[in-house]
Amino acid sequence: MACCGYATVSSPTGSELFRYSSPDSSDATLVSSLALKYPLAMPYFFSQDPDYVTVKDRVAAFACGAKGEAEGIADIEVAVETLRLAEWLVEEIGSQLA
Question: Per its UniProt entry, which superkingdom is the organism in (predicted)?
């Protein structure tokens, strides 16, 4: 299985409280099969493959004339506000770490 990595949460004394591995056990079979099928692709794409397919299908349907909006897909206003929030967070976190 292609492994992307892991993250841990530790107590102030350094003991591990929680560990998350990516891919997790529910993604392992999919990740392994995609790694064999696409050996030159970056492995972090594999565990997100079902989400990419969903986004692609919704955006493609919208682009081809589906009524309404692409469900669950951010529009430009949401994207701009997200970037504003990210810029604010960079400043806020930077000042807290200084």
Answer: Eukaryota
Range of the domain at 38: 1-47
Average pLDDT value for residue range 59-64: 92
**Average pLDDT in the 74-81 region?**
93
Structure tokens at 46: 């594999």
State the Cα angle at 97 between 18 and 15, rounded to 5°. Answer: 25
Q: How far is CA 12 from CA 9, 16, 68, in A?
A: 10, 10, 50
C-alpha span between 20 and 72 (Å, rounded): 26
In 19-48, alpha helices (H): 28-37
Report yes or no on 16 lying in a domain: yes
How many structural domains are present in the chain?
A: 1
